[in-house]
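Lab channel / #folding
Pinned by the channel admin:
"Please post every new chain as: sequence first, then the structure tokens as a reply. Keep commentary short and put observations after the output so the thread stays searchable."

First post following the new format, from NK:
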Amino acid sequence: MHDGFGFGFGGFMWIFWILLILLVIWAVGAFRGGEPRATRRTPLQILEERYARGEIDKEEFERKRDDLRR
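Reply from TO:
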């Protein structure tokens, strides 16, 4: 039996399952961790962060920065 819109109860169940699957895919992508593609850092930004955290000294920073600019 149809309700006049071409969808029976089964049609709405298909829409429900499709929306549920899309919601799960979105949730996995959102909570997966990592950086979004638009915010990926450049090698120079990573180097600057390492220097700011004290992982490398000034001489190593400058040497690596010069290497990146070549």
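NK: The two ends are 72 Å apart (CA to CA).
TO: also worth noting, The chain has three helices and no strands.
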